[in-house]
Write a structure and sequence with these properties.
heterodimer; A: 905 residues; alpha/beta; N-terminal domain of TfIIb; Rossmann fold; Dimethylsulfoxide Reductase, domain 2; 6-stranded mixed beta barrel; 31 helices; globular; disordered N terminus; B: 267 residues; mainly beta; Alpha-Beta Plaits; Immunoglobulin-like; 2 domains; 6 helices; 17 strands; 36% strand; elongated
């Protein structure tokens, strides 16, 4: 089906937020030679054992937007250490103009060095991991000319082949599948969860190649996996393109000056921030404590932010936030505590909300007493929260992830939050919503809560990932297993609403898409550079089943490490890390200044590994499109292209940039005067309308009413929906008798999604892994003492976490950091299948998350806040039962050894 | 003299210090100060953590542990030929001279010396003396994102050092690593009116400590009260609110406690 993107939208597929093609300059003349000489000198110095320092961004947003730039000291082709970058090393302070936020008698200063996340200091282990795929491999019993043995994916081992063989095999398979079934039968997974690189982009180089082959290959459309509810819910109330989230411009200042109480709702500002934002939020929250801003955490777990910053913890049951929100609205409505004037001027449909909340619709007033047993918060505490919120200027903080925003029907809590903020005057001083990650997204000042800088430099012209030209065929990522496993034809297709890419406009959610597209056939080949579907998406066991389907004739995975979906590939391509390549980068929102930097090669590539860009290039060569693929430029020349396209306020030559290694733009003059959150809309909603059909906050969402009038899972006005036709994942439904716990599965503390589970130094941290009696390092499962005791579970026991979709193991940690009735296990543990598609030793709990999407017309993922049961197991008995799985070569420091999968030559 | 100050109320538990220590010393030889730290198992800087309280009054205490670079270092006494104090105060276990001297591990009352099986040498934090020699910060301090870890001249840090009440110091060692703002223990609870089903704000909670000292707290907008940074001992607590009967309670405090919620009866 054709690309249904509306006209006039920003090119939101481009993570840089600009039309990078128009920024690509003509090949620069005459500057290449000096560069080459300098580089050769540098390389020679490296050879001679010289010590040098290179810049590398350590953020893992995985597209082209860097963060957390580090200085990496290198000696003798070996990484010595990783250090914070000092912003004023090459430029005087006067030039940087570091900002200061002053409020309530305190001062908060811009940091002059990067506040690196802890994993940056351990990341060299990832570079030198035993788990690295260093050579091309082929599955031993996959024979493209004979038996392909798809049933043995995840079982049989791999044998080494040459790059030439690998590239030829892939090129031949692409050609064969195209000729046999058509290009739509090739699914390209190239969409995230890896290192952040620009020229050597981790994700989507394969899309660039496929675009050279045709315009109807099948694209895996990644939905807003970390903020589902905002996209599928709030967007229908207020637009807020492209993400559906809130304006948060200048809110560090506004909160410090005006907010009395900051509600961290399902937000761990000490954890989800690390990969994207570094640790500025941590400093900021310590400062908020100093200046007297009360910090209240609403979440089932005492998350890592609450552990050190909370003045108050309200442990709500997972995915019952909507009930709590309803009760707050009830208190405000019945005690006349809300801002009627604001509601009248800024919203439509409030009477519909009253009708529901006061019980006129269903006879059940949504009182605190009604909500208390549902959400697990005593009614007096619900009332206290409602009263405090009404009395004191309150903002809400988010961090993405968790059971608040990516559980079943997650659009409802997001929409209720918009309702509550509307009732309290959204955008008034001290009354806004902030997110402690993803600052300056799309280069928008409205997405930058910290002081803005004078120019937001973008190096996107050098980016080689995610080349979006609107291929005609796509599958929303959440439905990939269903698309493969179901008996769909173009006449009887799988359908869903919305292109689903996380930044697509609201109206697009009303368009129907289908797989296969008209005239096409189903998927017969997958090429992934994103091999973590099983561990990061919804119902991973169904993906394993799909990956072993005989319909899939060829599965190609390219990845630096042998992990997760790689186990199910037929061909493996060895990819290197960013330390092994030269690149250019930009920081966006993590640094307090605008920042671009040259990433010199730190060490030579290990083994026969290539970058993603180069690896795809090898296939391009076999297909005869290499020159087009690389755009006629060398990596060195692409660095210059990236530099040239960045909007630099002061003249700086490329040579100077290369010599200094980075360039900074200072704090914007008069940044204090920029709008604060929803301030402009608050002050004059007519002059500053929202992107909703009415321009107002649509408490009654007219778009939903028009397109899905009968949808009882996402009605026009938000409802508390504990369970429904699609999902039975609530303690209130019958399934809870069998599976009596709700599991919280947050974005992990000690990984970034499925990345970095094999770092020895991190695995030593007590909350990272729990050592079982068999010496295996299990993924922690938090359980409250009150729940553990009757089950005979003690800390260190191995437990089985299960439901009707399968089971995973965990290492019990009996702790007061989780409320009773709830267990907690981070997502993204490295896959270690016991019985592939059924059970997992590593604790990759996404395997047993619901495969079904958010709701009938919302194709999001449901990966936290679902029902499970827990029981203690005897691992030695299990080892007898599953000898193969339990006897894989294993190093507690790094996990399952790659030799489990690679056949010795 | 150089000194470390660890401001515990600024520690967010990110473990960057523990990881940075390994980044600096695992696989890196910094002679004459240190042989490489083994890949795993040693913690020359070890973050410790402890969960305090019970749902819903819970917080986590983090505290990095390391060599205290003692002025009167027991390790130096145990092996004066192998352990020395630099003029800047950093205590160094000479990797050459200390080879084979496993007893040094037990000589440290802080448990800060580790035995390297492979190299047969006792090892510990050197204060990154090799970096200090270059005028740089120890790697853990450089890595700390919140300024919880500080390092510098004693005079520069004097104001912070003065706040060290010796909470984690062992008598007779005179450590040059100073801990300030220790977590201690807490008592927390909630006060409410069962008849109205509302919390009570502004109730007065009085706590008499083991030494007879009395402190008071008013319940907040959630009916909560908190007494933080307490020592172990027997406490007498009383709760008073206008129009309600008071409550008294004796608490044997050995660990932080959520003492529960107190529904007050009308007077």
């Amino acid at each position: 089906m054709a690309d249904k993107r509306s006209e006039g939208q920003p090119d939101v597929m481009d993570p840089f937020g600009i039309d990078v093609d128009s920024k690509r300059p003509k090949r620069p003349e005459g500057r290449g030679e000096a560069r080459r000489e300098a580089r050769e000198g540098e390389a020679a110095a490296a050879q001679e054992g010289g010590r040098r320092t290179v810049y590398k961004s350590t953020g893992l947003n995985s597209f082209g937007i860097g963060a957390n730039v580090a200085e990496v000291d290198v000696e003798d082709d070996r990484i010595v250490r990783v250090r914070p970058m000092q912003y004023d090393k090459e430029y005087p302070l006067e030039q940087l103009r570091p900002w200061t936020i002053k409020a309530r008698g305190g001062e908060f200063h811009a940091n002059l060095k990067t506040l690196l996340p802890p994993y940056a200091y351990a990341y060299k282990n990832r570079v030198y991991s035993k788990n690295r795929i260093l050579y091309p491999y082929k599955r031993v019993d996959w024979d493209p000319k004979g038996e392909r043995n798809p049933q043995n994916r995840g079982k049989s081992k791999y044998e080494r082949i040459s790059w030439d063989e690998a590239a030829t095999l892939i090129a031949d398979e692409i050609t064969r599948v195209r000729d046999t079934y058509g290009l739509p039968s090739i699914l390209i997974q190239g969409d995230g969860h890896g290192e952040t690189k620009v020229i050597h982009a981790s994700h989507g180089c394969n899309t660039r190649l496929m675009n050279l082959l045709g315009d109807d290959w099948t694209y895996q459309a990644r939905q807003p996996d970390s903020w589902e509810g905002w996209y599928w819910g709030a967007k229908h109330m207020w637009g807020q393109e492209p993400l559906g989230q809130f304006d948060m411009g200048n809110l560090l200042l506004d909160i410090a000056e005006n907010t009395d109480m900051l509600l961290f709702w399902g937000c761990d500002m000490e954890t989800t921030t690390w990969g994207w934002q570094g640790q500025l939020p941590s400093r900021y929250c310590f400062w908020l404590t100093e200046i007297g801003v009360q910090q209240v955490y609403v979440c089932p777990d005492l998350n890592y932010g609450a552990a050190v910053h909370s003045d108050k913890w309200i442990p709500v049951l997972p995915n019952t936030d909507a009930a709590l929100q309803c009760a707050i609205a009830y208190v405000w409505m019945t005690e006349n505590l809300y801002d009627k004037e604001y509601v009248d001027a800024h919203s439509i449909g409030f009477d519909w909300l009253e009708y529901y909340i006061l019980g006129k619709e269903d006879g059940q007033p949504k009182t605190p007493e009604w909500a208390a047993p549902i959400c697990g918060v005593p009614s007096r505490q619900i009332k206290a929260l409602a009263h405090q919120w009404a009395k004191r200027r309150t903002s809400i903080a988010h961090g993405n992830g968790g059971s608040y925003i990516r559980s079943a029907y997650s659009h409802e809590p997001a929409r209720f939050e918009v309702c509550l903020m509307t009732m309290m005057g959204l955008g008034k001083p001290g009354r806004n919503i902030i997110k402690f990650i993803e600052w300056y997204m799309y280069g928008l000042a409205s997405q930058q809560p910290a002081p803005c800088y004078s120019s937001n430099m973008i190096v996107g012209a050098a980016y080689h990932g995610w080349d979006f030209k609107g291929t005609k065929s796509s599958i929303t990522k959440t439905l990939v297993p269903e698309a493969i496993l179901g008996d769909y034809t173009w006449e009887n297709p799988l359908t869903w609403e919305g292109y689903t890419v996380c930044s697509w406009p609201r109206e697009n959610q009303f368009d129907t898409y289908q797989h296969p597209i008209i005239g096409a056939q189903g998927i017969h080949m997958i090429w992934t550079d994103t091999p973590c579907w099983t561990t990061c998406w919804n119902g991973g066991n169904s993906m394993i089943e799909a990956l072993r389907s005989p319909k899939l004739e060829c599965v190609v995975a390219q990845q630096p490490w042998m992990e997760n979906d790689c186990l199910f590939a037929d061909i493996l391509l060895p990819i290197n890390t960013k330390f092994e390549e030269e690149d250019i980068g930009q920081d966006n929102g993590a640094a307090p200044f605008g920042l671009i930097y040259h990433e010199a090669q730190a060490i030579k590539p290990l083994g026969e590994s290539l970058s993603d860009y180069e690896a795809v290039g090898e296939v391009a060569k076999k297909l005869g499109v290499y020159d087009e693929y690389i755009g006629g430029k060398s990596v060195e020349e692409w660095v210059e292209v990236g530099f040239d396209c960045a909007d630099k306020p002061d003249p700086i030559t490329f040579d100077e940039f290369m010599e200094k290694g980075y360039y900074i733009t200072p704090t914007m003059e008069n940044w204090e005067d920029l709008p604060r959150g929803f301030g402009p809309f608050c002050e004059d909603p007519e002059a500053n309308p929202l992107q909703s059909p009415s321009g107002k906050i649509e408490i009654y969402a007219t778009g939903l009413a028009e397109h899905f009038p009968d949808d009882d899972e996402r009605p026009p006005v938000p409802h508390f929906i504990p369970f429904g036709k699609r999902h039975q994942e609530s303690l209130l439904c019958d399934r809870a008798k069998e599976f009596p716990f709700l599991i919280v599965s947050n974005h992990p503390r000690w990984r970034l999604h499925a990345n970095m589970d094999d770092i020895p130094w991190i695995r030593e941290i007590p909350t990272c892994k729990v050592k079982g009696p068999d010496g295996y390092m299990y993924e922690p499962l938090w359980i409250n003492p009150k729940d553990a005791k009757p089950l005979g579970i003690e800390s260190g026991d191995v437990v089985k976490i299960f439901n009707d979709r399968g089971w995973v193991l965990g290492g019990a940690w009996v702790t007061e950091r989780i409320r009773p009735g709830v267990v907690y296990q981070d997502h993204g543990a490295r896959l270690d299948p016991i019985e592939a598609g059924v059970s997992d030793r590593g604790g990759a709990n996404n395997l047993i998350a619901p495969a079904k999407t958010t709701s009938q017309h919302a194709a999001g993922e449901v990966t936290s806040g679902f029902l499970v049961n827990v029981e203690k197991v005897d691992v030695f008995e299990l080892a007898k039962q599953y000898p193969e799985a339990f006897n894989r070569p294993y190093d507690p420091a790094e996990g399952v050894d790659i030799s489990s999968w690679i056949q010795e030559a | 003299m150089k000194t470390f100050v660890i401001n515990l109320e600024k520690c967010n538990g990110c473990y960057a210090c523990q990881l940075a220590c390994k980044d600096e010393t695992v696989g890196n030889q910094w002679l004459p100060y240190s042989e490489p730290q083994p890949k795993t198992g040693h913690f020359w800087l070890k973050m410790t953590e402890k969960v305090h309280g019970q749902v819903p009054k819970v917080r986590v205490e983090y505290r990095p542990e390391m060599c205290r670079h003692c002025e009167e270092a027991p390790c130096m006494e145990a092996a004066p030929e192998a352990v020395y104090c630099r003029p800047d105060g950093l205590v160094i276990v000479d990797p050459e001279k200390a080879r084979g001297q496993r007893q040094l591990v037990d000589a440290c009352p802080y448990g800060a010396i580790w035995w390297n099986d492979e190299l047969e040498v006792p090892q510990k934090c050197t204060g990154c003396a090799h970096l200090v020699d270059e005028g740089k910060l120890p790697h853990c301090v450089d890595a700390c994102p919140t300024d919880a870890l500080l390092f510098g001249e004693e005079e520069e840090l004097a104001a912070m050092v003065a706040q060290d009440q010796g909470a984690f110091a062992i008598d007779g060692t005179k450590p040059r690593v100073h801990y300030v703002n220790p977590f201690g223990l807490f008592i927390s609870g909630e006060v409410w009116d069962p008849e109205a089903d509302l919390i009570i704000e502004g109730a007065t909670v009085t706590l008499e400590g083991p030494d007879g000292a009395v402190q008071t707290a008013a319940t907040d907008g959630f009916g909560d009260f908190w007494f933080r940074h307490l020592d172990e001992g027997t406490y007498r607590m009383s709760i008073e609110a206008d129009g309600f009967q008071g409550v008294q309670k004796t608490i044997e405090l050995t660990e932080s406690v959520n003492i529960g919620d107190f529904p007050l009866q009308k007077a």
